[in-house]
Structures are given as structure tokens and as C-alpha cells.
Design brief:
There is one protein chain. By secondary structure, the chain is mostly helical. The chain has one domain: MetI-like (MetI-like fold, Orthogonal Bundle), CATH 1.10.3720.10. Helices cover 75% and strands 0% of the residues. The protein contains 13 helices and no strands. Helix 4 packs parallel to helix 7 and helix 5 crosses helix 7. The model has no long low-confidence stretch (mean pLDDT 86).
Length: 295
């Protein structure tokens, strides 16, 4: 009994310590970004111009780029990840499934800088020479209006992020599908249900919480990805509807400018961007919790 109390106290201490570190983390960000808030206020968030040489700072292009690249990459990778998980868990032979699952897990562990190099040398030319001309027939739609010159664009960043986060969705969903009780599936089969009906009406509803958690985990990875996106997005603080135009994200601008920032206002603005990114990430976690509680 005494050892149990000691164990509870130790685990409580570590839990509270982690929470304290996180709150201190946010506090330091808030303190060190005060100069920007005093200078610009809410105008910093909605400002569209970023010119450190003239001490003009507006965060909206970076917020826009972060949200667009993360959301569209998630929209692209979600069906691919779910479909891959269903194929590995419910369709293919188990031995082959285990082999392919290990390959997918290895892909998830590839360093982002390596994926960025792949993006520069292979994906960016693909977007420039193939994807953009192929979608030129849809140029009347603002999203696909042709504006790219070098291939460094929001579209390249979306494809890179999709490649990076799809394994997270696939692996977590596949693990959840493997945990579905066989009795439930056998009961459906005994009633004459086909495989796709068992998957649709038994397996997927049973693991919907795991799907939400895995998807939000992937979304958080997309939010914070730095090197791979920095290498392919073009790094221009502009807001353009076309996915083939260059863009910028919050992690990318912090990585590019923090080491070279000299003016205190410039440093404060970059820290403020980090605080905004953290708030965006926390918001996605709260949304995930709300969805799971509703279910």
C-alpha cells in the first residue's frame, strides 16, 4: 500500500512538472513578444506586409500559408491513409501486411531534411513540368491558376506534407483496426454481410476515436514541419489563392530569420509568430477533445 502511494506521488510530480514546463514555455513566449504587441497590437496578426529592413511586420501571410498547407495536405492524406490501413488490416495477407507496415513505419521516420531534398530535386520539377500543365485546363479556378515559375510553391509543400503525414494516419488506423474484436465481425458475417459492409458498419465505427486521434496527430505534425516545407514552398510572404504560387509558413520564417535577426523588434515578432503557432496547435487539440467527447 505504501509503495502504491509513493508511485502515485512520483507520477503526479512528473505530470505536474511537465505541465509547469509547458506553462513556463508559453509565459516566456508571451513575455518576449510584448514589444511587438505594444508596437502593433492586433494589427500584427492581420497585417500582410513583412519587411524587417523597415521594421514592418505582419503575420497574416504566414498564418495563411500554415493553415492552407496543413489543411490541404491533411485532406489529401486522410483518405489515402485510411484506405491504406483498411487494405493492410482487412484485405491483404497478414505476412505481407506486416512487411508493408514496417516499410510505412520506416517512411514515417525519414528525416525531414532528406524529404526536403527529395522535394527539391524530384517533386518540384514534377509540379512545374507535369502537374501544373496538366491542371492548366482548370486555370479558371483561382486555386489552379498558373502563377508558378520555378515550381517552388504551396502545392509542392502540400505534396511534401502529405507524404510525411500519411504514414501516421495509416499506422495508427491500422493498429486500431487490428484491435477490433473478431466476434463483432464474425457476427456480421454470419448475417450475410460482405467484407466492405463489415468494414463500414463495424470496424470503422468501432475505431472512430482512434481515427480522430491519429488524424489530429498528423495535423499537428503538418503544423510544425519546418525544413521540408522551407525547402519547397518558395518562402515569399504573400497571400495568393493559386496553389502554384510561392508561399510561406510560420515554422519556415522562424527557421530562416531567427539566427539572422538583430533588431529587438524583429526577434520579438518571430517569437510572437511562435506563440501564434503554439496557440493554433493547442486549438486543434481542443477540437480533437471536443470531437472525441461528443462521440
Amino acid at each position: 500500500m505504501r509503495s502504491k502511494k509513493i508511485f502515485d506521488i512520483i507520477t503526479l510530480f512528473f505530470s505536474l512538472s511537465y505541465l509547469a514546463i509547458f506553462l513556463l514555455f508559453l509565459f516566456e513566449f508571451a513575455i518576449n513578444s510584448q514589444l511587438t504587441w505594444k508596437m502593433y497590437g492586433f494589427q500584427f496578426i492581420i497585417g500582410t506586409r513583412w519587411d524587417p529592413n523597415k521594421n514592418i511586420f505582419g503575420a497574416l501571410p504566414f498564418i495563411y500559408g500554415t493553415i492552407v498547407t496543413s489543411a490541404l495536405s491533411l485532406a489529401l492524406s486522410f483518405p489515402i491513409g485510411i484506405g491504406t490501413a483498411i487494405f493492410l488490416s482487412e484485405v491483404i495477407d497478414q505476412r505481407i501486411s506486416e512487411l508493408l507496415t514496417e516499410v510505412i513505419e520506416l517512411i514515417a521516420g525519414i528525416p525531414s531534411v532528406v524529404i526536403g531534398l527529395w522535394g527539391i530535386f524530384y517533386l518540384v520539377p514534377f509540379v512545374k513540368n507535369f502537374l501544373e500543365p496538366m491542371l492548366s485546363c482548370l486555370s479558371f479556378i483561382p486555386l489552379f491558376s498558373s502563377q508558378g515559375v520555378s515550381g517552388l510553391s504551396v502545392m509542392s509543400a502540400i505534396l511534401v506534407l502529405s507524404f510525411m503525414i500519411t504514414p501516421f494516419i495509416a499506422v495508427t488506423t491500422k493498429s486500431a483496426l487490428d484491435s477490433v474484436p473478431e466476434d463483432l465481425k464474425e457476427a456480421m458475417y454470419s448475417l450475410g454481410a460482405h467484407k466492405y459492409e463489415v468494414i463500414t458498419y463495424v470496424s470503422l465505427p468501432y475505431i472512430k476515436k482512434a481515427i480522430v486521434s491519429g488524424t489530429m496527430l498528423a495535423f499537428g505534425r503538418a503544423f510544425g514541419e519546418t525544413m521540408a516545407v522551407t525547402m519547397v514552398i518558395g518562402n515569399m510572404p504573400t497571400i495568393a489563392l493559386s496553389l502554384f504560387s510561392p508561399g510561406y509558413t510560420i515554422p519556415a520564417v522562424i527557421a530562416n530569420e531567427l539566427t539572422e535577426a538583430i533588431a529587438q523588434l524583429h526577434i520579438s515578432s518571430l517569437i510572437f509568430l511562435a506563440l501564434i503557432l503554439e496557440i493554433m496547435s493547442i486549438t486543434t487539440i481542443f477540437v480533437e477533445r471536443l470531437i472525441i467527447r461528443k462521440w
